[in-house]
Amino acid sequence: MRFMQRSLMGLFLLALTVGLLTLAAGSLRSTLQERWADTPSGRPARERVFAVNVLPALSQTIAPKIETFGEIRSRRTLDLRAPSGGLIVEIAENFVEGGQIVKGQLLLRLDPVNAQSALDVALTDTSESAAELIEAKAALLLANDEVAAARAQADLRKAAHERQQNLLSRGVGTEAAVETAALALASANQAILGKRQSQAQANARINRAKTATARQEIRLNEARRKLADTEVYAEFDGILSTVSLVSGGLVSPNEKLARLIDPSAIEVAFRVSNSQFSRLVAANGGKAAGDVTVRLQFLGADIQAKGQIERVSAEVGDGQTGRQIFARLPVDVAASFRPGDFVAVEVQEPPLESVAVLPATAVDSAGVVLVLGDNDRLEELKITVLRKQGDLVIVRGRGLFDREVVEARSPLLGAGIKVKPLRKDGAAIPTGPVMIELSDERRARLIAAVEGAKRLPKDVKAQILTRLKKDKVPEEMVNRIEARMGG
């Protein structure tokens, strides 16, 4: 009985083991079938190669330009205003919008009747004042003569008084005669005081006449000025603008009649950023200076002119940034521009040495470019962007020169990707040999192959060994050695 139980238990365990093995075999088979089904039956995938445009980064000296916009202005502008009010009786034929004016030309004349009448009255008053002054001077001469005559009479009375006193002292004269002589002397002295008072009045009359004459001279000059204000003359050669009057019209004092602009004194006003202004100042010893090129598009053609920076605005201005600079244009090109023209301005900066010019599309926001490396694989290179010139950038970076740079970056391109370089016809390509870095094992193998070559001359062998010991080795030389090695 015990034997049967053990036999049945053994059979049960055997069946269970076989079932588990069968289940494991089925699971393994299904797994293998799924893996075989996922594995493609075709040829293995090849690495994708992208075609890119490349251009060489050549070291050169570039003079950057600051590109901005400005406005043409005139350095000599005069507002023509009416000095006085009145009726316009005469106006120049070319006193119109855009009229050419010559220096000293009569532009307009106001009605001079009132001013002429005031001048005639002032002349009459001046003549009367002059006559009064002459009369006062003559009265002063008479007063002086009267004073002199009174003094002479007083001297006679004094002598008579002294004689009567002398006679009285000798007992010949009388006291009554002495008193009479004393009274006559006192009367003579009193007469002198009266004549001196008349003399002082004559002097005061002269002073009053002189003051009145000076006042009349002032009125006469004012009358002449008012008469001269009825005529307006041009102070310099120029062109009229904003003309706002007609012949026969009435104007009020200080009313604006027109604007006279000198077309030969032309300048351009433009604004640059603070960093651009600091570069201009630093390059010219603390003073803003440099050449500017002004360009105006006119009927499909560009009108260009050269100028020189002359001065900088004293203040920034409300709501403005940067610095406003004024550049003067030569007289020979001033006829092509008019005040108010909106022009493009280029300011020449000092040249930068050892820089390269690349398209702006070749540099990313982090200042990295893609360069062509070994086996046409791309490498990333960090550079410094010095200037932006439209669609180009001026850059500088270590190891950049004489390398081929990808012209336009793309999200599909990156370091390590194999590309097919496309070079433009006539584009400059680095003429130097392509240099590569060698591993220690590869370098030792190449050195051993060169040292074992018995047909190489000693000087040539020494030269090749010297090149192989450097950090970078010409790729063409490495390929030739490995081809002779059979590797």
Task: Describe the fold and architecture.
The chain is α+β, with helices and mostly antiparallel strands. It contains seven helices and 25 strands. The strands form seven sheets. The chain has a six-stranded antiparallel barrel. β13 and β14 form a beta hairpin. The radius of gyration is 56 Å and the shape is rod-shaped.
Radius of gyration: 56 Å
Might you state the CATH topology name of the domain at 114-228?
Answer: Helix Hairpins
The largest sheet has its strands arranged as 3-12-15-14-13-16
| Structural class by helix and strand composition | alpha+beta
Largest sheet report = 6 strands, antiparallel, barrel
Total of helices: 7
Beta-strand share of residues: 25-35%
List the helices and strands and how they pair.
Blueprint: H1 2-38, E1 50-57, E2 60-62, E3 65-74, E4 77-81, E5 86-91, E6 100-101, E7 106-110, H2 113-169, H3 175-228, E8 231-233, E9 238-241, E10 250-251, E11 256-261, E12 266-272, H4 274-283, E13 291-298, E14 301-312, E15 323-328, E16 342-348, E17 352-359, E18 368-372, E19 378-382, E20 384-389, E21 392-396, E22 403-406, E23 419-423, E24 435-437, H5 440-451, H6 458-468, E25 472-474, H7 475-485
Parallel strand pairs: 1-23
Antiparallel strand pairs: 1-22, 2-17, 3-12, 3-16, 4-11, 5-7, 5-10, 6-9, 7-8, 9-11, 12-15, 13-14, 13-16, 14-15, 17-21, 18-19, 20-21, 24-25
Helix pairs in contact: 2-3, 5-6
